[in-house]
Amino acid sequence: MDSAYDRRVVFPSELGNSTARQLHDLSPALIIPLGSTEQHGPHLPVDTDTRIASAVASGIAERLAGDWLLAPAIGYGASGEHEGFPGTVSIGTAALQLLLVEYGRSAGGWARRLVFVNGHGGNVSAVAAAVGLLRREGRDAAWCACRVDGADAHAGHTETSVLLHISPEVVRTADWVAGNEAPLSDLMPRMRAGGVAAVSPVGVLGNPTTATAQDGSRIFAEMVDDCASRITAWKPGAGGFLQ
Ligand SMILES: [Zn+2]
């Protein structure tokens, strides 16, 4: 068996499927989905953010030419605002920040650069701080967000539509109900004190009952386009939040 064979085959697209030998001498760029495990109302699964981040990251990796490698998702995040709902598992901002820093330090030993694709708003301060530290340590790290203009906040039209597009089999349309549709800025004071439960007993911020797979397809494409173009424009040495 020619030991150099694995190194000549097509570049592997997923970290989980790759062998150490395939990655030897490659110094690839790594794209890491970052999600959460938290309640998403009565109609969406607790891994909704992880599903969205994974699908968007996969779409980005397919879109980008070159040696981009898709990592397995990090499926736990900072979801303290959803405590009190069964199914929520939050590791908090401090633990997530440390996890991401150690992830970057380890992966940075063989990956040329890394970008986290974040699917959960509660992770923002942890990922921003972790990427900032990794950059100060000399690693080429960045992050981008799965977001679109005009999105509602949580388990509403936006996320439900995207799931109808990427994972229709897990959307329980018989159980969906409208939640609190007030702007997030109006809800924040009460949410800071009592979490999402204080403003929406059903755990929904927005209205999922208007969701469609067609809209989900459009929103999903926008998320992929937005992140892919930011990553394409990302120059070595620049970084942080790609905007
Ligand atoms: Zn979500």
UniProtKB/TrEMBL annotation:
Annotated GO biological process: riboflavin biosynthetic process
Record carries keyword Metal-binding: yes
Keyword Zinc set for record: yes
Pfam families membership: Creatininase
Cofactor: Zn(2+)
Annotated InterPro entries: Creatininase-like_sf, Creatininase/forma_Hydrolase, MftE
Keywords: Hydrolase, Metal-binding, Zinc
Superkingdom, taxonomy of origin: Bacteria
Any GO MF annotation of the entry: metal ion binding
Entry similarity comment: Belongs to the creatininase superfamily.
Protein name from the UniProt record: Mycofactocin system creatininase family protein
Organism in which the protein naturally occurs: Mycolicibacterium madagascariense
Species classification: Bacteria, Bacillati, Actinomycetota, Actinomycetes, Mycobacteriales
